[in-house]
Amino acid sequence: MERIDAAAHTRGESQYLDDMPLPGEMLYASVFSSPVMHGKILSLHTEDAYSLQGVVAVLTSKDIPGENQVGPIIHDEELLASSEVCYVGQPVAIVVGTSPEIAMKGVKRIVMNVTELPAVTDPKEAFLQGKIIGAPRTFTLGDVDTVWQNCDFIVEGACDIGGQEHVYLETQRARAIPLEGKSLRIHSSTQSPNAVQRYAAKILGIPASSIEVDVKRLGGAFGGKEDQATPWACMAALAAWYTRKPVELVLRRADDIRMTGKRHPYKSDFKIGVTKEGKILAYEVKHYQNSGATADLSTAVLERTLFHSTNSYFIPNVRIFGVCCQTNLLSNTAFRGFGAPQGMFVMESAITKVSEKLGIPREEIQEKNLLKENDLFPYGQRARYCHIGDTWNKAAERYDLPKIRQDIEDYNQTHFETKKGFALMPVCFGISFTTTYMNQASALVHVYTDGSVSVSTGGVEMGQGLTTNLVIAAARAFGIEGHRIKIETTNTTRIANMSPSAASSTTVLNGNAMLRAILQILDRLKSLIIKELRVPDKDKITVVNEKVFYDGLETGWGWEQLVQTAYLNRIDLSAHGFFASPEIYFDKTKEKGHPFVYHVVGTAIIEVTLDCLRGTYDMSSVKIVHDPGRPLNEHVCRGQIEGGLAQGLGWMTMEDLRFNEKGQLLSGNLATYKVPDVYFMPDDIKIEFLENGKILGPYGSKAVGEPPLMYGIGVFFALRYAMLAFKPHKEFTFASPLTPERILLQLYSEYLNK
Amino acid sequence: MYPEIHFLLNDREIRISEHPAVLVLDYLRGSERLVGVKEGCREGDCGACTVLVGELSGEQVVYKPVTSCLMPVGELYGKHLVTIEGLNMPHLSPVQQAIVDEGATQCGFCTPGIVVSLTGYLMEDHQEITKEGVKKYLSGHLCRCTGYRSLKQSVDHFKKTLDNNKGIGFLVANKMIPAYFREIPARLRRIPEISMRKEENTPDFFIAGGTDIYLQKNELLPESRICVLNGQPEMKGVFKKNGYLHIGALTTFEEFAQHTGIIRIIPYIREYMFQIASLQIRNRATLGGNIINASPIGDMTILLLALESLLVFKDGERSRTVPITSFYKGYKQLDKTSTEILTEILIPEPVSGVLINFEKVSKRKCLDVASVNSAMKVRCEDGIIRDIGLAMGGVAPVPLFLKATCQHFLGKQVSGELIEDAFPIIQKEISPIGDVRGSACYKRLLARQLCIAHFTKIFPEKVKVRDFYGTH
Ligand SMILES: Cc1cc2nc3c(=O)[nH]c(=O)nc-3n(C[C@H](O)[C@H](O)[C@H](O)COP(=O)(O)OP(=O)(O)OC[C@H]3O[C@@H](n4cnc5c(N)ncnc54)[C@H](O)[C@@H]3O)c2cc1C
Ligand code: FES
Ligand code: FES
What we know:
Shape of chain A: globular
Mean pLDDT of chain A: 96
CATH superfamily of the largest domain in chain B: Beta-grasp domain
CATH topology of the largest domain in chain B: Ubiquitin-like (UB roll)
Strand content of chain B: 15-25%
Number of strands of chain A: 30
Oligomer: heterodimer
Largest sheet of chain A: 8 strands, mixed
Strand order of the largest sheet of chain A: 3-5-1-12-9-10-11-20
Strand order of the largest sheet of chain B: 2-1-5-3-4
CATH superfamily of the largest domain in chain A: Aldehyde oxidase/xanthine dehydrogenase, molybdopterin binding domain
CATH class of the largest domain in chain B: Alpha Beta
Low-confidence stretches of chain A: none
CATH architecture of the largest domain in chain B: Roll
Low-confidence stretches of chain B: none
Number of helices of chain A: 19
Structural class of chain A: alpha+beta
Radius of gyration of chain A: 27 Å
CATH topology of the largest domain in chain A: Aldehyde Oxidoreductase, domain 4
Largest sheet of chain B: 5 strands, mixed
CATH architecture of the largest domain in chain A: 2-Layer Sandwich
Helix content of chain B: 25-40%
Helix content of chain A: 25-40%
Number of domains of chain B: 3
Bound molecules: flavin-adenine dinucleotide, FE2/S2 (inorganic) cluster
Strand content of chain A: 25-35%
Shape of chain B: globular
Largest interface: A-B, 89 and 90 residues
C-alpha cells in the first residue's frame, strides 16, 4: 500500500504550519541572540528596535509573567537569558513586528553590552574544570581490572567524534493564537506537543489546561524538534500573550543552524584486550560528551551511549564510563540514534585498531564476538530474539562477502591512484524510551454514524509514516477500509500528557494505544450484534472487509448498518485507549535492569572508492540485511532505512560543524554545511529483510526509525581500509567526520608545507 | 510606483507593480499564497522553492527549473512562471504517480520542488529518459528523509511511456501536464514587448542571475534602485568573430556548457559542470556575475582565467577591454568603475593542440563551493610546452593566475622532475588562509595535488601519479 499522505505531498497540498491560512492581524517574531560565548549581561538596549516603524513589541526576560525556564530534565535553561549568556546564539530578546522583515530589522537594532567571561569548548577540558552536568555514570560487567593480564594483546586509543546538524527541511516554527480569556492555541512544529504545552504554561504562569497545542505534521525533525521546538513555541506564545494578536515565529535557515542544538560531539578513550584469536575479553571506555551550554536531553543521550557502547558484541568484562561535560557551545540535543551512534563508533574503532595491530581482518574479529541468544548486556538485560548473527550470516552469504573482499583486494593490487575499501557494520539497537515512565501512550477513537472513523493519538507525523501505519493498523483491527479512517492532528486537548514522538517508539506505543481503544468499541459492537442476531458467542464475531461474520459465516450485516444500529441503541461509539510497555525497568543505583522491550538488529556491508590523489571519495554500494519484524508498510520501512543510512553516511563523512575560536559556527548555512545529495548516495543500495518472530509492535512490526542510521558508521572504516591500502604503514586517527580534508592531510602528512 | 510586471502565473495572466527586487518566492508564498512552494534555505541550496520559468524561443516555450528564492520578480516580465499548483490536474501526473508508487516522499517538504524539477525534465525534448538525466534534475534538491534511492527509481516509471517524447504537445495530449500549457506560447506573444525605460538615475545594484547578490545584499535590495540586467538580450549568446569566441556576459553556466562552440574548445565542459552548482543555479548563474562577484573560488572565473580571456566593459557609450589576468586587484577589488557593465567575455580561439583541464575539490562533490579549484590550458610542440595558462582558486584573496609557475613551465619538456620543481614556485605564489572550506595547509597540499592532477590527466603517457608517490 502507498503512503496515506504521498499523493497530497506530491501535489504540494499537504499543509505545514505556515501554509495554513493566515489569521487577520498576524504579527511576526524574530529573535535577538547572544553574540558571545560566555558573558555577563551589563545592559540591553531595545529602544532603537522599538522606534522602528512596524515594530509592535520587544520582549526580554523581564516580560515573562511566569517562570523563565524551559530545561526539560534539569532546570538550567532560561527561555530568554536574564543576566548571563553561555553560548553564541542564545536567545535574549524577541522583536515582534508587522512583517518578518521588520521584526528581523528590529533585531539588528538591539544592542547588548556584556563583559566576556572565560569560555570552554572542549569536553575534556570542561571535565577537568569540573564543569559537568548530572553525575558521571559507569556501567560494569565482569571485572576488567583483573582480566587485562589474561589478554594476549591490549590496544588503547582515542576517538574524536563530530556533531551533526539535523537539517530538517522545515525549520523550527510556531504560530500562537490568543483565545478567549487567558488561554492560547499554539501550532508548533514539535515532536513533543506536551512539552510545548507544559513550558508555555509555565512561562506564562497559567495552567496547562489553558494552552492547547496542535500539530498537523512536521517537515522533518530527526530529534531536533523533540526538545528544541519548545523555546520557539514559547516565544511565539509570549509574544501573542502580550500583543493579544496571532504571532508567527519561523526561523530562517541560518538562524536555525546558528541557534539550535545538534548531535553531541564526543571525545572518548578506549582500551581493549583480546586473545590471539581475536576474542575480546575486556573493554574499557570513557566517554566525554560535549553537552553544550545546558542540560537539555544530554543526560538521557549519555545514558543511551552507555547502553550501546558494546554495540552488537558480547564482551564478558566491561567498564563504560560516561560524563556530560558543560561547554560554551550550542546546547546539544536528541538526534536519531540518541547517543548510541557515538558509543558504537568507539567500539568499532577499538575493534579496528585491534585488527590493524594483529593483522586479523576486522570482520573476523567482529564476527567472532557477535552477541548470541541469552548473552548478557552490560546493563543486565539478556539478548532475546536478537538475531544479529543471522543478519550477519545472511548478509555475508546473500551479498557474497568473500567475493567483495577478493574483488577489492584485486582492485587495489592493480590500481594506484584510486583504492577501494569495505567494512561491515552490525547494529543492535534497543527499543523503548530508556526513561521508563515515558513508555506510555493514549489514543482517542470515534466512530461516526456514517461509519467513518476519527483517530487521535499522541504521535506526531514527521515523515516517519506514523499516519500510514496507524491507518493500516486501524483498518485491519476494525475490518474496514482504510479510506474510512482519518488520523487527526496531534492535539493536547484530545490527548493529555503524551510522550514525545521519539525513541523509534511512536508507532509501537501509539499504535497499541489505538488498538486498545478500537478493541473496546469492537467489543461493544459485538455485544450488540450477538443480541441482534440471537447468537451465543461474542468471540465468534469478526468484521472483515466491512462485513460481519459469525463463526466464519456471513451474517448479512455490514459495517455501516452495524454502526447505525449501535447508535440507535445508545451504544458508546468512542473510546480512549491506553498502553504502557510491559516488563521494562531500570535501576540507576545499580545501573542494571531490563530497559528495552526488544532490540532491532541488522548488518550492513559498505563499499567505497577513494581518490587518493584528491582525497575525495564515492560511496560504491551499501548492502543491508535488516530485521524489521513484520513491517506494516514496506514503503515506510524501506524509506526509514534508506533515509537513516543517508544521515549516518553524512555524519561520518562530510557533515562538518566548524566553529571559530569565538564559538561562532562557521558552517552555519547549507552552503557550508553539506548533507548527502543525490550524487553522494550510492546507486547500488540493497536491503533484504530477515523474516522472523516475536515482537511487540502493532501486528508484529518492529521500530525502524533510528537503528539504520548506525549502518552509516561503517563508511568510516571502509574509507580507512582504502587509506591503508594506499599507505599501509601509516597511523590514522579515529576523528570524524572523515572529510576529504582529513583524508588528504593524513595520507600526505609528510608533504605538508612542501 | 514601480514599472508594471506583466507575465503568466500558471494559467493566469498577472500584472503587478512590486519592487523588482522582491523575491519570486516571497511573492508566491506571500502575495499569492501559493504555498506548495516551500522555503528551505533562501540560498539556492535545497531546491524546495523550485519553480519552472518558461520563455519564448521561436514558436515554443522552453521551461527551466530555477530556485525562486534567488530570482527577482522584476525578471518575470513576459515569462511563464509555473509552480506545483500549476502542474496539478485532477489525477496525478506521471511524476507524481511515480513518487507515490515508489514511496519516494516522507515528510514531504522537499517533494513539491522535486515534482516541479522532474516535470521540467519530462518537458525537455529528449531522445531517452535516463537515470543520469533524473539525477541531474534532482541535483539541486536536498531530501533529508528518503536517501534518494526511491526518487532515482522513479525513472523506471516514466521511462517507457516517455522515451522519445515530442515535448510539451505530447505531454498535454496525454494529460501528463494540464491542457492550458498548449495556449501559453500564444498568450506570451500577446504580452507587449517591454519598453526599456532609460534610467534617469544610475542604479545602486545590477542583478544578473541574482545567485550571488541575493546572498550578500538581501536586505538592501528591496530598498534600492536596481537594474535587472537580464532584460538586455543583447548581452546573451556565443558567437565567433576575429579570432575570438564572444560570450555575452549574461550567458548562463548551463547555456555556456551546452554550446557547441564551447564544447569544441573545452571538450569536457559538461563533465566539469557536474561539479559546479546545481541545474537550477546553472540555469540562472551568469558568467558575468561569476567574474564580477570576484569570489576567489569562482569556478567559471578560474576557467576563464586559465584561458586568458578578455573582458569588455561598457559605460554608456564608452567601451573598454581588460585582460582578465589583470582584472583582479585585491580581495573583491576590481579594475572597474561602479557604473561599468561587463557586456562580453572574449576567449581567444585556441590554436590546435591546446589541451584544457579543470579540477575542483570540495567537501561534497556536487553543489558545493571548492576548497581549491584550478584550470590549466597547455599546448606542446614536439614535447615542449609552448603555451600554458594555470589558474587556481581558493589560494589567494583573488582568483589567481599563477604567472611565475607558468613561466617555469614555458619552453620545457613535460616530466615528473619539471613538475616537482614547480611545487615550491606554486607555494610561493599562493597565500591561502584557513576558513570553513579548509585549513591553509590543506589548501597548500591541494595546490600540489591539483597540479599533479592536471599533468597526469593531460599527459598520461608522460607522467603518472605513481611517479610522485610511488616510492612508499
Ligand atoms: C547554491 C549555489 C551554488 C553555487 N555554486 C557555485 C559553484 O559551484 N561555482 C561557482 O563558481 N559559483 C557558484 N555559485 C555562485 C554563483 O552562482 C556564481 O558566482 C554566479 O556566476 C553569479 O552570477 P549571477 O548572474 O547570479 O550574479 P548576480 O548575483 O546577479 O551578480 C553578482 C555580482 O555581479 C554583478 N554583476 C553581474 N553581472 C554583471 C555585469 N554584466 N556587469 C556588471 N556587474 C555585474 C552584480 O551587480 C553583483 O554584484 C553558487 C551559488 C549558489 C546560490
Ligand atoms: S529555499 Fe532552498 S533553494 Fe530556495
Ligand atoms: S521527504 Fe522529507 S525532506 Fe524529502
